[in-house]
Amino acid sequence: MKIKVYGILKRYVGDRDYIKIDIPEPTTVADLFSKAGIPGKYVFIVEKNGKAITKDITVNNDDEISLIPFISGG
Fold first, then answer.
1. Is 5 exposed, middle or buried, given 0-12, 13-18 or 19+ CB atoms closer than 10 A?
2. Residue 55 in domain
3. Domain for residue 17, yes or no?
4. What's the pLDDT at 25?
5. Are 57 and 48 a contacting pair, CB within 8 Å?
């Protein structure tokens, strides 16, 4: 599975734009956070194959996931 990460979430994956991992299928998005080492509390939007989904949706290894954090500024 390819997981794209944005913003502050990159610090949890070695400052990379994406990671590839294998997951047991099916896996919920919430469980995926744990497997990838990304704190779910920092993820605001999750996309599965380009469409926004909720954290209780299941994903498979052939899906492309994007994790987008809260955005803040001053």
1. buried
2. yes
3. yes
4. 83
5. yes
Closest CA to 27 of 65, 63, 50, 59: 59
Domain range for 37 is 2-69
Beta-bridge partners for 27: 59
- Cα separation, 19 vs 16, whole angstroms: 7
Tens-digit pLDDT profile for residues 21-71: 998 888 999 999 999 999 999 999 999 999 999 989 999 999 999 999 987
* Residue appearing with tokens 């599975």: 1
**pLDDT value for 3:** 95
Which residues, 6+ apart, have CB-to-CB distance to 62 below 8 Å?
1
Tokens for 44, please give them.
């605001």
Number of domains the chain is built from = 1
Helix (H) or strand (E) holding 31: helix 29-36
